[in-house]
Each structure stands twice: as structure tokens, then as C-alpha cells.
Amino acid sequence: MTIAHLLRVSAEAAGALEARRPVVALESTIITHGMPYPQNLETALKLEETVRAQGATPATIAVVDGRAVVGLDKAALKKLARLSGGVAKASRRDLAPILARGGTGGTTVAATMYLAAAAGIEIFATGGIGGVHRGAEETFDISADLVELSRSKVAVVCAGAKSILDIPKTLEYLESQGVPVIGYRCDEFPAFYARSSGVKLDHRCDGLHDLARMIRLQREIGPGGLLIANPIPETDALDAEQVEAQIAEAIDEAKAQGIAQKEVTPFLLGRLVEMTGGRSLQANVSLVVNNAMLAAQVAVELARL
Q1: Each residue of 273-295: pLDDT tens digit?
Q2: Nearest to 159 by CA among 237, 97, 71
Q3: CATH class for the region spanning 3-304
Q4: Which of 25, 215, 240, 253 pairs as cysteine with 116 (C-beta 3.0–4.6 A)?
């Protein structure tokens, strides 16, 4: 028995997959833990509209009432959005316990990758991946997103890693796990709100067709997926030095309040919204929509190969 019997794939997504039409997976922690209501619902709907506008089928993934759902309908999106912060944050390790209890949860990058691969979806758009946390040499706090990238044959489009992380160590970990990191029209790894982290990449790609070929070849070579780094649009990017200072302040606050593990990221992102007067939230929406657009364009190219 495999995970397939626990999946509930929407008729639209199933039809597109069967006909080999382009499909883009979307995660749901941005709805449940990434933004407040109603911005989370507005963003979720905008992401799906963006994917459709590029000629692909969106498939937002979540755990709903004990089933892994691939392709949420509007009613389910609205329900998740209203439950913002009141449901589980489901990483790969959490799937079995939540499913067994008949629970509901927003899926992280790791869980979404795993479920997308199980459904046969080749590409997935998110905001930023998790990574190696600052101070990981003492805490061993390394996101399951990195491990899943080394296991699931899914391409992930992101705006780099959140700048609350240790980006050089994150890229070192991916290199050691054989995960290619491709800069889309950029030479440096982006840092979520900022277009660059100052860390140079080994591989760059400037065309959709070449990017699609890399994804297909990585599926053959393996063992895992491929990471596409797509910088936030310049008009919505934040000043890197200012964000770094605000993040350092927020990290100190988190430590003082005893906030740790999976609660750290939502706390830090929330504090950044306050510190930036809402500009970080606007940037978050901009970058994830930009990633959904690129993922859909690449999905169309994958369908043509």
C-alpha cells in the first residue's frame, strides 16, 4: 500500500495530469501560517489565477479532514483561510499523525513536495524554502525542506531562502545532497525579501525551455528534485541591510520569549510585518505570485517536451 490511496486529487487536476497538460502544485502554509485573514485567502486565489493565466492548472495541496487533498476547491480554500493559525503546520513528519486523527493542516514545502510527487506533479511554486537555521551548529535546526529536496523528484520555484536563515550553510547542505540550485536570470542566490544574498550560484539559466530540460534530466538522474531560485521583482524588493538588522532584532526577541522550532518562522515573519509597516507582507505576496507565474510557464514547457 502506498500514499496514493490517501490522496484525493481534484477532478480538474486529475484530468490535466491524465492528459499530460501542465499542472503546478501550490503549498498551503502560506494560507494557514504565512499571512493573516483575509490577505491569505486573497493571495491563495491570486496564485491560482496567475497559474491559470499562464495556461496551467493549479493544485493547492493541504490535509483536510484526514485526507491529503491535491487541488483544493474554493470552499476548502476559504475554510483554511478562516482557520489561519488554528490548524496544524504539517511538514513531512507530521502527515501520518494528522491523517490518522482525521485532522486538517497546511502543508509546508517538504510535505507539499512529497504529496505533489505522489500525485505525479513535476513542479511546485512556493515563497521561500526552509533551510539551515542560524546557530544550527548548536541546535541542529535544519529544515525538512532540504531533506525532501534530496528525495522527491519535484522542481521547486522559490525566491531563495528566507533571510532569517544561514544561507551559505543552506546551499552547502543542498550541494552535499546532490540538489542542483539554478538561478533564473540571476547569478546570486536571492534572500526572499531581497534580490540577492551575496552568495554566488554555480548555475544560471535564462530560458524556459532550457529550464524545463534541466528539470527532466534531473528527474532521470536523481536522486531528488531541483531548486529554481527566482528573485523577487525589483519594484517590491526590500533593502537587504535594513531587513538584516530587523531580522537580527526579531531573532533576539524570539530567544528572549523562548520561541523555538517550527514556531520561530511565523513569529519572525509576523514581527517583520510590524517592523516594516506592512511592506514585508506586500513583498511576500509579490514574490510568491512571481514564482507561481514562472512555475506555470515552465510547466507549459515541460508539457511540450
Answers
A1: 899 998 988 999 999 999 999 99
A2: 237
A3: alpha beta
A4: 25
How far apart CA 156 and CA 224 sit, in angstroms, is 11
Residue 10, C-alpha cell as written in the block: 481534484
Position 166, amino acid:
D
**Strand 123-125, strand 23-26: pairing:** parallel
Domain limits, the chain: 3-304
CA pair distance 98, 209, nearest whole angstrom: 39
End-to-end Cα, the chain, rounded Å = 32
Q: Is the dihedral of CA 232, 161, 109, 105 positive or negative?
A: negative
Which residue in 18, 27, 122, 137 is the catalytic one?
27
Instruction: Assign 270 a pLDDT band (cuts: 50, 70, 90).
Output: confident
Q: Which of 89, 153, 162, 301 is catalytic?
A: 162
**Which element (helix H / strand E) includes 9?**
strand 7-9
Q: Which amino acid is at 226?
A: L
What pTM, to 2 d.p., does this model score? 0.93
Annotation marks residue 27 as catalytic: yes
